[in-house]
Automatic annotation (TrEMBL):
It comes from the Bacteria. This is DSBA oxidoreductase. It comes from Sphingomonas sanxanigenens DSM 19645 = NX02. GO terms for molecular function: transmembrane transporter activity. Keywords: Cell membrane, Membrane, Transmembrane, Transmembrane helix, Transport. Signal peptide: none annotated. Belongs to the major facilitator superfamily. EmrB family.
Length: 509
């Protein structure tokens, strides 16, 4: 994206800080919406009369739409102008947020979440690009620090805000609260950012590549979300979706590798460092996000936690990450980033093993401690991975590499959400069958009968206990699998060569 070297002089210093805060706030809102619905899924499912597993479409729909739109950001900015794209995205995000809150059915809610993701996708990279344009070189480090803080705070505050609103108001308000923020950012951008608008250029767009991208990702995600409800490949519809996703994916790769102006530059994968880095990033983020999805639902459906308390438990990871982010940033360039990434991912794997020892009698602090300790390692995983991936490509490929990296990270979140919930549900069924096969309820029945309970009540108590323990065992098994995925990701990073120093990471995110 072309930048004027002195574009920051076009905004008065007195207005520059205000513009920076507006851009940081817009980024915070978009990142917040990635996790704000996680703890609200049981509320949404209950209100709309659907299963909690269907409610996860609210999470995956947003993530998938955002993933599809991220690769388009560069083209949109060059074609229409950076500020125009930013403003249009903010308006669209606010509109679809209101429509999400007004949705009376799951279908409309998911459709509006798709709209949110499409509009929200360009806001993250656009907000960072505009920050670099309005601040002089000596102040860009602090500006990027402010931007990074909002990126870390968003996932931390999402579960807490979403939980509090769902418990005390209504789940609809987790979407309505975006409207005033979007309105403020839109009017502020119109007033403050017009002087740094970029020139517009007529550029070709890879329409066939875009259609193929939407097609195979859509088929894959629908297959993953519906598969657990339709006995997977025993259902002809799921099998058909899987075949279509595979054909679309192969066609997409062939087309993008032969297209002169591809919408996704797959040729970047020829760089071993980039390939190893994004593979480790996708695996690690997917395994990490599994806990963000499973823990709130388990705590609310089985452990009796409110959405607010479930959000607080989940959020401790991101809160702890804020304390070590500056240390990780200073260590990059002094320590081999591969060592930092490997150590951090191994740390995440150890935390998954720790969580796999949870029991149904675990108290609040037993649940919080692995979340808190895990958070200290997060910056040592995210920050150096950017250096590893972007140092492996040519300078002219940096923007494309950053977009592809964000695309894969977002897709990993969407796919992991579907896969982990499928595994969790299957593990519950297996665990329940194993518990029932070894259950000897005679003594329990006798004891409860002596306490005055009727036979129907006794059966219900035993059934509830079995369900709770089966769910708990399924959670433990899920975290064990996550640990194995993280161990593999920690080894994958060593396929990357040692990165070059002095890498420009401004195109990241």
């Amino acid at each position: 994206m072309p930048q004027q070297a002195d574009s920051y002089t076009l905004i008065a210093p007195s207005r520059r800080l205000l513009a920076g805060l507006v851009l940081a706030l817009s980024n915070f809102m978009v990142v917040l919406d990635l996790t704000i619905a996680n703890v609200s899924v049981p509320h949404i499912a209950g209100n709309l009369g659907i299963a909690p597993s269907q409610g996860t479409w609210v999470i995956t729909g947003y993530a998938v739409a955002e993933a599809i739109c991220v690769p388009l950001t560069g083209w949109l900015a060059l074609r229409f102008g950076t500020v125009r794209v930013f403003i249009a995205s903010m308006v669209g995000f606010g509109f679809f947020s209101v429509m999400c809150g007004l949705s009376p059915t799951l279908g409309m809610l998911v459709a509006c979440r798709l709209g949110q993701g499409i509009c929200g996708g360009p806001i993250m990279p656009m907000s960072q690009t505009l920050l670099l344009r309005i601040f002089p070189p000596e102040a860009r480090g602090r500006a990027m620090g402010l931007w990074a803080m909002t990126t870390l705070l968003g996932p931390a505050m999402g579960p807490i805000i979403g939980g509090y609103i769902s418990d005390n108001w209504s789940w609809h308000w987790i979407f309505f609260i975006n409207l005033p923020v979007a309105a403020i950012c839109t009017f502020a951008a119109i007033a403050l950012l017009k002087p740094v608008e970029t020139d517009r250029r007529i550029l070709p767009i890879d329409r066939i590549g875009l259609v193929l991208l939407i097609f195979w990702i859509g088929c894959l995600q629908i297959m993953l979300d519906l598969g657990r409800e339709h006995d997977w490949f025993a259902d002809p519809m799921i099998l058909t979706l899987a075949i279509l996703a595979g054909i679309g994916f192969v066609a997409f790769i062939i087309w993008e590798l032969t297209e002169e102006h591809p919408i996704v530059n797959l040729r970047i994968f020829r760089h071993r460092g980039f390939t190893a880095g994004v593979l480790a990033l996708a695996l690690s983020f997917g395994a990490y996000f599994a806990s963000i999805v499973v823990i709130p639902q388990w705590l609310q459906t089985s452990m009796g936690y409110t959405a607010t308390m479930a959000g607080i438990v989940t959020a401790f990871t991101a809160m702890a990450a804020l304390t070590t982010a500056p240390i990780a940033a200073r260590m990059v360039g002094k320590v081999d980033p591969r060592i930092m990434v490997c150590g951090a991912v191994l740390w995440l794997a150890i935390m998954s093993v720790w969580r796999s020892q949870w029991t149904s009698g675990a108290d609040f602090w037993t649940l919080v401690m692995p979340q808190l300790v895990q958070g200290f390692a997060m910056p040592f995983f995210i920050v150096p991975l950017t250096t590893i991936t972007l140092s492996a490509v040519h300078p002219s490929e940096t923007a494309s590499a950053a977009g592809l990296q964000n695309f894969l990270r977002t897709m990993a979140i969407a796919i992991a959400t579907s896969v982990v919930l499928t595994f969790w549900e299957d593990a519950q069924k297996v665990s329940r069958s194993e518990i029932v096969s070894t259950l000897q309820p005679d003594a329990v029945q006798s004891s409860l009968s002596g306490a005055g309970f009727g036979m129907d009540q006794i059966r219900q108590i035993i059934a509830n206990t079995v369900d709770q323990e089966a769910t708990m065992l399924a959670v433990d098994h899920t975290f064990l699998i996550s640990a194995f995925v993280l161990l593999f990701a920690a080894s994958v990073i060593w396929l990357s060569p040692k990165p070059k120093p002095n890498v420009d990471t401004s195109a990241a995110h």
